[in-house]
Amino acid sequence: MNLRQLFQRTKPVRLTQASAARRDALPSPQPIDSTALNRARLVVLDLETSGLDLQHDEILSIGAVAIDTGILSMADQFECTVFRPTHRASQATLLHEITPGEINDGVPADDALLGLMEFAGHCVFLAFHAGFDQRMLRRGLRRDLNHRLQHRFLDVAELAPMLFPEAAQQCSTLDDWQNHFHLDNSERHNAAADAQATAEILLILLNRAAKQGTNTLAELNNRLVLWRRLNHARSSGF
User: Is 153 a member of any domain?
Assistant: First the structure.
């Protein structure tokens, strides 16, 4: 690590008094507990980034859709593009169709992340391949808000094959699962559309979970932990 990288990692976050007050008032996360799935606030998140490097790439666009008490509402959504003064167009941004003009007109990073976390509220986050979104959000909150991410994440890319094992061999990507469930995918590859697509899949998964007797956050998470262990055992030859 060179001195410039060290400085960038350790330089203090400077927030306005208003932004600091908003950060300090952010709601606590929803624990993975006995809360019923149809009573919990579940926020499906998609982050479009400048690339896949967790250390250096940045969040460029945020899309989030809430399923609150089992209801997916078009009015309960969050979307914004993030202003990045040093950003240059890349293959990733061309794929996501984010123009330099949209970046220049975007919301400052601290304001965008505060808006997301205020929207999310007392929730559990879900995403497709959630590990990437979780790590990028954790880094962004730490760097731009000096805030530690405490919200739990569940991975729709794991829940789908767990609940629909009959489709697991044919489906791996978000597009695959959309096609399997006969959902429209014409708007894919921007944050808001990807979050909406993932939320529609999640509703189908939650319906299957309920039919199988899985009714709470803890029950769903416990099933997921067991499913991972069984998969690991199979892949290890046991």
Answer: yes
